[in-house]
Amino acid sequence: MTKIAIFPGSFDPFTKGHEDIVLRGLQIFDKIIIAVGYNSNKTRHFDIEKMLSKINGHYHNNSNIEVITYNELTAHLAIKHKAEFLLRGLRNTTDFEYENSISQVNRDLNKKLETVFLITSPEYAAINSSIVREVHKYGGDVSKYLPFTI
Ligand code: ADP
To answer: Looking only at Cα atoms, what is the longest distance across the chain?
Structure first.
């Protein structure tokens, strides 16, 4: 059976921390769908279509990775794509608190959905999209946090 995982997130922007989760996830799953979501609680800094095309360009040689945008419940998106797994990264207890409740709700909405968590690699633990956004907003160099130029 093909193991398909969705890696959902705002990816505003997609960082080296996210990339690390994707690459390690490929050792577990046959296919990973990176799903860039419209988050109703967050106003984006980086345009969603631009981020889609940047991530797509970065992985264009990898047939096991697909990149999409979405604007619906992640649990429903998974059914549509025949994905039985959600992939998420955990950096700290703040991530855990949030991920714990969201994974319970997702499984409630879609009984076949298992969320798989990968603990961040220490070298990427401090990389946080919201801090990268702030640095970029005020003209700082964010290139070392991202897997591609923006
Ligand atoms: P969301 O808005 O859904 O939290 P993010 O783009 O901030 O989306 O994060 C997507 C996923 O990647 C989350 O599971 C988050 O915990 C994880 N993540 C973010 N940054 C890192 C990092 N530096 N290392 C590992 N995982 C990370």
So the answer is: 48
| Residue nearest atom 26 of ligand 1, based on CA coordinates | 89
Instruction: Tell the residue nearest (CA) to atom 8 of ligand 1.
Output: 9
Tell me whether residue 58 is in a domain.
Answer: yes
pTM of the model: 0.96
Cα of 132 vs centre of ligand 1, distance in Å, is: 12
Q: How many domains does the chain have?
A: 1
Going by their DSSP bridges, the two strands 4-9 and 85-90 should be labelled as parallel
Q: Residue-wise pLDDT tens for the chain (150 aa)?
A: 899 999 999 999 999 999 999 999 999 999 999 999 987 777 899 999 999 999 999 999 999 999 999 999 999 999 999 999 999 999 999 999 999 999 999 999 999 999 999 999 999 999 999 999 999 999 999 999 999 999
The residues carrying an active-site annotation are: 18, 42, 91, 129
Which structural domain range is residue 11 located in?
4-145
Residue 101 CA to residue 123 CA, distance in Å, equals 27
Determine, yes or no, domain membership for 150. no
